[in-house]
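Example with several molecule types.
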Amino acid sequence: MLKVGIIGAGRIGRVHGESISKYVKEAEIKAIADPFLNEEQKKWAKEKGIPCAYTDYKKILEDPEIDAVLICSSTDTHSKISIEAIQAHKHVFCEKPIDHDVSRIKEVIEELKKNPSVKYQVGFNRRYDHNFKAVRQAVVDGKVGEPHILKITSRDPEPPSIDYVKVSGGMFLDMTIHDFDMVRYLMDSEVVEVYAAGNVLVDKAIGEAGDIDTAIITLKLENGAMAVIDNSRKSAYGYDQRAEVFGSKGQVTIANDSNSSAVVSTENGVTAEKPMFFFLERYMQAYAEEITEFIDAIVNDKNTPVNADDGLKPVLIGLAAQKSLKENRPVKISEIKF
Amino acid sequence: MLKVGIIGAGRIGRVHGESISKYVKEAEIKAIADPFLNEEQKKWAKEKGIPCAYTDYKKILEDPEIDAVLICSSTDTHSKISIEAIQAHKHVFCEKPIDHDVSRIKEVIEELKKNPSVKYQVGFNRRYDHNFKAVRQAVVDGKVGEPHILKITSRDPEPPSIDYVKVSGGMFLDMTIHDFDMVRYLMDSEVVEVYAAGNVLVDKAIGEAGDIDTAIITLKLENGAMAVIDNSRKSAYGYDQRAEVFGSKGQVTIANDSNSSAVVSTENGVTAEKPMFFFLERYMQAYAEEITEFIDAIVNDKNTPVNADDGLKPVLIGLAAQKSLKENRPVKISEIKF
Amino acid sequence: MLKVGIIGAGRIGRVHGESISKYVKEAEIKAIADPFLNEEQKKWAKEKGIPCAYTDYKKILEDPEIDAVLICSSTDTHSKISIEAIQAHKHVFCEKPIDHDVSRIKEVIEELKKNPSVKYQVGFNRRYDHNFKAVRQAVVDGKVGEPHILKITSRDPEPPSIDYVKVSGGMFLDMTIHDFDMVRYLMDSEVVEVYAAGNVLVDKAIGEAGDIDTAIITLKLENGAMAVIDNSRKSAYGYDQRAEVFGSKGQVTIANDSNSSAVVSTENGVTAEKPMFFFLERYMQAYAEEITEFIDAIVNDKNTPVNADDGLKPVLIGLAAQKSLKENRPVKISEIKF
Amino acid sequence: MLKVGIIGAGRIGRVHGESISKYVKEAEIKAIADPFLNEEQKKWAKEKGIPCAYTDYKKILEDPEIDAVLICSSTDTHSKISIEAIQAHKHVFCEKPIDHDVSRIKEVIEELKKNPSVKYQVGFNRRYDHNFKAVRQAVVDGKVGEPHILKITSRDPEPPSIDYVKVSGGMFLDMTIHDFDMVRYLMDSEVVEVYAAGNVLVDKAIGEAGDIDTAIITLKLENGAMAVIDNSRKSAYGYDQRAEVFGSKGQVTIANDSNSSAVVSTENGVTAEKPMFFFLERYMQAYAEEITEFIDAIVNDKNTPVNADDGLKPVLIGLAAQKSLKENRPVKISEIKF
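Resulting structure tokens for the full complex:
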């Protein structure tokens, strides 16, 4: 039985904890750590039968019984704890992004090279979503022929707080980074150039905090295909997560998930349910699957499906997008120093 | 150039007139007749370039230049004018139903036997609707295998006036008759038995007029398959016209048509347009096609696609349904005397 | 912590076991019993941490630590074990149907009257399905006004084995019974009369075993509304589970669930996924919810949401449908002796 | 009765001719002219009752009885004939684009200033499509709030011949020009900057002819909103014409039209019909409406709904897109000399 420690007892840390206790036979959670550990979190740990609850994550790294850690702490600590955990020979599941600074990600990758037995996975959960998987499968199966155009719509139901916006690294590294990962995952080709158009249309305060809230990003891929992402921080009808791949033989599209297929027809129209509200509703099953695959990679000594390099590439694209927006010109990924 | 007379200048008569002038190259309208011919109708005839407008339809039957007549007068005159027109050697397009009294329909059929060169077509327009045609085509092409179950939903947006209800012949002969025709058309098999459950749920006044407004009718077919029709005189969201054929290899379904595919997503839901309001909107193209095929049958000496026997059968089914409702038991079509 | 015993370690017994271990905090499984307990079942019990695995279910009933039992054994044992469990003061979750013989169900109800503290729930899982719940909610919320017509389509992807057909009690009691329950659940009104049309269109062997495989059943309800169910034992495209309620203000419909929303457009058409294959896929979440509600009813001393009377009524409707089919006439529920 | 001359008896000229004869009461076609007038075209003119058929369009311009001309000749003659027709005091309906050279369009506009009584309309037919109209209406009605993002997908089923590609003015001026018009129509705001990414993915011969066949074009609008268009010259599943407007209060989307709503479910999936094949099928009704509105503008002395300026703007955007593609940078519309 694999023993797991969760670093960061916030929402996403507990989501992963629930997944392990419900779905993962081969693992159990031994400890949870959070510098601001509160009563609710302690109670949750107790209910889940987690023996140890710390404020200092180092106790997890020092515990020789613990095989793997989930890094669910604030973004600015991801790379630091990653390096420490690798050095402590713990397998690591790290929430995205590894860091906003590519040199720090580079250090993580260097550390992994020194510790080749350590498994490292980045939390790009959308790769496990039933819909996105179906798009990729259709592409892999050749159902659309050679891919020509990928379209991703990705819109949040509510912008984050302005305090969060300030430390988020900007919309491209915080939100679009998932879409950049999807471009690579769905098209199986690397991005070579990015052009980002963006604006502040949702909330002026976001602009005052130095960020944008609405964007259209065009990406040129190594294989000649193109991708386009459109983002908004606020979609009135809920979390909008769609994709289309168009190719020489046709197209595959996915729609949003909703809580039921009920459609009510009245004199006012024919009304279906809104999409599920946000990522926790839409991707709950995907979160469970990514953790299951992480544990499986450890137990059966497989490569992790989303490795440190997969964690690095979307950050590079994000930085190129930032530069593109600032300079209003297409920017090559190779312009971003690494 | 075929010359046509229209008997009955009401709504449906003018719909057919428009169709001929727009779409049918080989025919022109020479005359229109209506006992209550009003100024609006006269003006319409003038605009369409129709030379003659009468109050007495016999002038049309007596005109040796006129080759064909469209009988669009009130239902109780259909069989009488049909017989007179056949005797006058005019080809006849007769609105449904030919008569509520099968013995009268029998007389029309007898008259047709005496005048084998006369073409006779009944106005079951749904056979020309793009959706219903697609269902039949899928069945004919074997896409659903052997048909097992046909489901028809047929609901009007508004009940007719109580005055009309009283002379309509009852819902089964007035409204469901189209659905009975669709059962025969889509399944290519004759109905042998009917069970009708009905109630007055929309408007008590309809019940007081001796009719029902809501029904579920089960039909057993010669080929062993079954069909079910559900009717309502009032659908809040508009004209609901759907069908499904389920068979050994699968199913074909059709949805309603609406004015556009626009879908508006807001915090209140994901809302599409209602179905088109009523038969004139939904079946306008079908009306044009049925008249085109009628003229084509004359010009090219083909069988009419919906003949007098196709006019008779749904009336027999309707009478069996009435008997079933009254006696609350399944009724064989063979019980209806003919 | 509530202690539960599972009687019957077949597929559905283990589905409920999984649900309890994953989702139900307040309960744990102490024992499982099956007369034909095999190695796979024993292994499963061990993995789930179930301490006891018996061949004799009476050991469960005799265990004073066990608070509740799930009766997942073969249908012919449901009522007998129900009575014994009630007498042993165990709360009972019983798979449907309680019995094919209403007098036996009556005995269960009598036994419950003698033991008013015992909770009894029948396994009509569809009441917990997200789609069917949404239909009921729309009806309860008045979104469709007064309900007039309910349509249920319920088709299995594959017929059961002929051996099973012989002991199933017939399609109406084995398969349609769920739909009869849905009529009561969705319309909140009792069925007063049934007319069943049925045939053998899927497999002659089913007919030779004395059953039918295709049916259309019309039901008249106490509130004046009508319902119609269509069934097939074999749907080529998978498990077809849809419903529509039409009323004075509109309609609510539900569609099938599928594994993803992926739609592939090629020169051959625009193709979506088939519905989920069968009940285990489609209703997995519903199974979890019904067990959760059963445990909740015990822990918080609530009425069970589907009680013994709810178990009886669909059997009465099923028996009336059998009689209707045999005698080819509408049959009142009151004709079924109870 | 307005008298109309059609210059150019190709496909689109005859489409407009059919529309006038079927739908436009106030106009009749007096003459048709085509330098390569063939027997089929002469026969068509005869059937439509068109008295005159010329090889020289100047005979139309010289006919004092003719009030209006439809310029449906090859693109390189549009501006020249426009100017001559305006000088001859004929009202002009001109197929798009007026010219590939903005200085020539400028001359047309100058000529119109000199002849203020002449009505001039450009053939942007999509403005009359039921779906695109519904999108605009939703935007105008405020259903989506302030528009933030417009997405247009516009893909042809088949690329044109290489001979045509060579004289087409390039994909942006030949095909995307409709989409540029839709951006202005749907968003009611002018384009200020364009960034075009393009490639040759469909057919190398198109690249050898100096054009592209696949593109993603991002547009910044005066009101701060953004638009993105994706184009392909070859969509395996047919003509793909969709749009979405996303705004502060929600989103409006439109789907493709198909010949019927039939959906066939089999063991292979749930398959709907492909979109209608190409523009003649999809936009037939729109063609009729644009001509009807042109005639109406003349008869009732209204402004034409798509004037010469509306003909100019998309050409400017197209030229900016060409420059953007060539220089791989965003290009302001103001950079295009006019």
